[in-house]
């Protein structure tokens, strides 16, 4: 199979790759380069597409904009609120689903449904669940004597509501990946441990957790990246606004608002690049930790 | 197998290439056609606008109407198309007003604008600055296609004003609404209250009507979520002004502005008023009987009438209670024609615009939607008068013509209103004091206005 590359084989390979390259180029690579250039537009005539001046003013602007820092803070709170809880819950459910229970297939489907349902549809349902006067959640809390919480209209509760929705929405995907990971663990280990008299908790701690670490690592990277990019959930849950008094404004919402509502393309692009760098740094840190802690 | 794959791939590539190529050549030839047409026209442009439509023209009208509003618009458009030999108007629903605005901007950039679209006044200011809209004055004055002096003056004056920039028409009023006060008749009657007509009466009524009823919490006064976005209404009622269009000066941070914000915020903090919150629009809570009074757009009438019938709410509407002054903003959009259209398309759009707001249609439109008729003749027409007798709520809006004003039309007004609303929302949510809110609003506004 290890043929030396010749001109014909290179051309042939390129031809095979071409469709993918064209699509990636047009829809991924080009926008990335273009938005980097746009972040440098400081004086831009939108309609005639004339850039009168380039510079770093947009970056200076966003770093001085309290709105941007608020969005960044909200986003980080969101990431911290969603990722660990989501991983813990989905791991627990995955282990249950991996055990010998009845209707395993049915439950797997049920848990996967949120992932394939559109965010807008989910948000409509959750808006009803969160409704102050008529919502399901406040009804249940009422049974325990908790007075109605204004989930969606009180600035202090807007972020928790968003986090609850997002955890629920992300479970399905994480569970499926965890299930795949669990099924890759050789049963022999468990049997051996059982013979040695290890309790189920110790088996979980010393077999499942280490052998699942590469899966957990993958999920945590994907979840963190996705959580940093949260937008649809905010937009749909709060009806096109980033929560009451902008209490759930995230970085992507900040980018959206500057781009579409204020026509500040340079500022939006600059913010997008800052977000890109933040995610990049987080991923690097994870990879560094991953190298030392993850057992393959 | 390999050969087959290669063949398939080559076929796909060929299709893609051909498709791309075709598009290019098509648009190029269309452009050439347009250019040659434009040349012809300049030579024969001797009297009036001098355009003749002698071949089929199809034009797109971008709008943001939905539900009953969209049905009424479709009916008028169908009537128009049926009455015309060569002109076909195609309605294109672009979603919400925000979506519409975004799509028009994107289309302008892509040089792909429709022939006509709904637009707010401040959008048009923005379009004007970028030379996107057609001056309609020649069409209005044209001896063949235009309007007589009387016909022009038949358009309600405030709407004529709000569509004039430097003495030229750049749009025509279409769906104009005003704020009215909906009230629950039964609740008022039970509390022994008259319909409030002043701020003091409004406050008293809101207090009295905030009550427990059949185990249900009723709040006296309902306000739309956009109350802070349209705060000019309260400021003007307090005798102040939101923004001076001439000087471009933001004037909310004044004693009048403070009075207005204190009044509204006071009722909310005391729990006698609420915003629609998660319900989106107040028509929902109102028709469920959760609020006794609500201040909202006259265009909300059909959205109240339908559900109220189901829930059995006995309701009516009245003019807004006055503060120091009676004042009500006229909202809603206009129809504007874009510059990028050919002369034939522009004329076709003008013909449609005239039809859309002729006496009969503007009255029909108003009766189906709760928007206001934009012509005096329509207001006096038998059909409309009769309709109002049967449905008195539809007549409330026009009683306020004298108290009406329109939004500032400065460029960036949208961004400004949003930024101000953000700060005022914080006050209503109890996150900031009235003073802090006004100051922050002033700062945000100055920042955008570049003052």
From TrEMBL, chain A:
CDD domains (UniProt xref): TM_PBP2
GO biological process: one example: transmembrane transport
Subcellular location: Cell membrane
Main location: membrane
Membrane-crossing residue ranges in chain numbering: 13-33, 76-97, 109-129, 157-182, 203-225, 265-289
Residues of the ABC transmembrane type-1 domain: 72-286
Keyword ATP-binding: no
Family per record: Belongs to the binding-protein-dependent transport system permease family.
Name of the molecule in the record: Sugar ABC transporter permease
Upper lineage: Bacteria, Bacillati, Bacillota, Bacilli, Bacillales
From TrEMBL, chain B:
PROSITE patterns: PROKAR_LIPOPROTEIN
Localisation: Cell envelope
Pfam families in the cross-refs: SBP_bac_8 (PF13416)
Domain of life: Bacteria
Signal peptide positions (record): 1-21
GO cellular component: cell envelope
Region: Disordered, residue numbers: 26-49
Compositionally skewed regions (Basic and acidic residues) per UniProt: 29-44
InterPro entries: Bact_solute-bd_prot1, SBP
Keyword Transport: yes
UniProt keyword terms in alphabetical order: Signal, Transport
Main subcellular location: other
Database matches in Gene3D superfamilies: Periplasmic binding protein-like II
Parts forming coiled coils: none
Keyword Nucleotide-binding: no
PANTHER family, per database record: ARABINOSE-BINDING PROTEIN-RELATED (PTHR43649), SN-GLYCEROL-3-PHOSPHATE-BINDING PERIPLASMIC PROTEIN UGPB (PTHR43649:SF31)
Family, as annotated: Belongs to the bacterial solute-binding protein 1 family.
Protein name: ABC transporter substrate-binding protein
Organism: Radiobacillus deserti
Source organism phylogeny: Bacteria, Bacillati, Bacillota, Bacilli, Bacillales
């Amino acid at each position: 199979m290890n043929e030396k590359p010749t001109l014909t084989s290179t051309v042939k390979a390129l031809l095979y790759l071409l469709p993918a390259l064209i699509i990636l180029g047009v829809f991924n690579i080009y926008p990335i380069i273009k938005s980097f250039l746009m972040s440098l537009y400081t004086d831009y005539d939108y309609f005639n597409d004339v850039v009168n001046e380039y510079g770093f003013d947009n970056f200076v602007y966003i770093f001085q904009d309290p709105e941007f820092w608020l969005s960044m803070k909200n986003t980080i709170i969101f990431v911290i609120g969603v990722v660990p809880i989501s991983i813990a819950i989905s791991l627990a459910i995955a282990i249950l689903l991996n055990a010998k229970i009845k209707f395993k297939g049915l439950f797997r489907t049920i848990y996967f449904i949120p992932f394939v349902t559109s965010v807008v549809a989910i948000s409509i349902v959750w808006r009803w669940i969160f409704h102050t006067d008529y919502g399901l959640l406040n009804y249940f809390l009422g049974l325990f004597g908790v007075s109605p919480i204004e989930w969606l209209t009180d600035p202090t509760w807007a972020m928790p509501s968003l986090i609850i929705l997002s955890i629920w929405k992300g479970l399905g995907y994480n569970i499926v990946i965890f299930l795949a990971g669990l099924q890759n663990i050789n049963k022999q280990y468990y049997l051996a441990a059982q013979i040695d008299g290890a309790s189920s908790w110790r088996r979980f701690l010393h077999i499942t957790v280490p052998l699942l670490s590469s899966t957990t690592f993958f999920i945590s990277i994907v979840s963190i990246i996705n959580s940093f990019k949260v937008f649809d959930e905010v937009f749909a849950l709060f009806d096109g606004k980033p929560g009451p008094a902008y209490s759930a404004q995230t970085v992507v919402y900040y980018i959206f608002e500057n781009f579409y509502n204020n026509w500040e393309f340079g500022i939006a692009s600059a913010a997008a690049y800052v977000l890109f760098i933040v995610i990049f740094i987080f991923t690097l840190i994870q990879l560094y930790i991953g190298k030392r802690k993850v057992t393959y | 197998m390999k050969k087959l794959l290669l063949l398939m791939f080559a076929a796909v590539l060929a299709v893609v290439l051909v498709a791309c190529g075709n598009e290019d050549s098509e648009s190029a030839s269309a452009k050439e056609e347009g250019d040659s047409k434009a040349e012809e026209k300049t030579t024969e442009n001797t009297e009036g606008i001098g355009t003749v439509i002698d071949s089929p023209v199809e034009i797109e009208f971008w709008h943001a109407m939905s539900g009953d509003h969209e049905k009424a618009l479709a009916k008028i458009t169908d009537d128009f198309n049926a009455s015309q030999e060569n002109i076909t108007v195609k309605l294109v629903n672009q979603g919400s007003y925000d979506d519409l605005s975004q799509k028009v901007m994107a289309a302008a950039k892509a040089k792909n604008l429709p022939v006509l679209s709904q637009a707010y006044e401040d959008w048009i200011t923005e379009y004007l600055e970028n030379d996107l809209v057609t001056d309609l004055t020649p069409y209005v004055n044209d001896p063949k296609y235009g309007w007589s002096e009387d016909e022009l003056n038949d358009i309600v004056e405030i709407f004529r004003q709000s569509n004039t920039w430097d003495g030229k028409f750049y749009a025509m009023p279409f769906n104009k609404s005003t704020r009215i006060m909906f009230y629950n008749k039964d609740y008022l009657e039970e509390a022994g209250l008259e319909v409030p007509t002043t701020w003091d009466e409004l406050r008293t009524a809101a207090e009295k009507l905030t009550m427990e009823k059949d185990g249900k919490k009723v709040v006296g006064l309902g306000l739309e979520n956009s109350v802070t976005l349209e705060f000019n209404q309260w400021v003007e009622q307090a005798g102040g002004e939101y923004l001076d269009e001439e000087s471009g000066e933001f004037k909310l941070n004044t004693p009048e502005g403070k009075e207005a914000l204190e009044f509204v915020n006071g009722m909310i903090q005391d729990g006698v008023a609420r915003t629609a919150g998660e319900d989106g629009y107040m028509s929902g809570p109102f028709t469920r009987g959760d609020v006794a009074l609500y201040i909202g757009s006259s265009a909300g009438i059909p959205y109240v009438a339908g559900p109220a019938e189901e829930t059995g709410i006995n309701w009516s509407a009245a003019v807004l209670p006055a503060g120091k002054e009676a004042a009500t903003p006229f909202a809603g959009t206009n129809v504007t024609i874009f510059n990028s259209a050919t002369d034939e398309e522009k004329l076709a759009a003008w013909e449609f615009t005239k039809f859309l707001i002729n006496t009969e249609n503007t009255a029909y439109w108003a009766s189906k939607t709760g928007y206001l008729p934009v012509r005096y003749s329509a207001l006096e027409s038998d059909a409309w008068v009769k309709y109002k007798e049967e449905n008195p709520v539809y007549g409330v809006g026009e009683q306020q013509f004298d108290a009406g004003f329109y939004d500032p039309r400065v460029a960036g007004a949208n961004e400004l209103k949003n930024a101000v609303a953000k700060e005022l929302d914080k006050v209503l949510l109890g996150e900031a004091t009235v003073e802090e809110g006004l100051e922050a609003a002033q700062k945000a506004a100055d920042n955008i206005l570049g003052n």
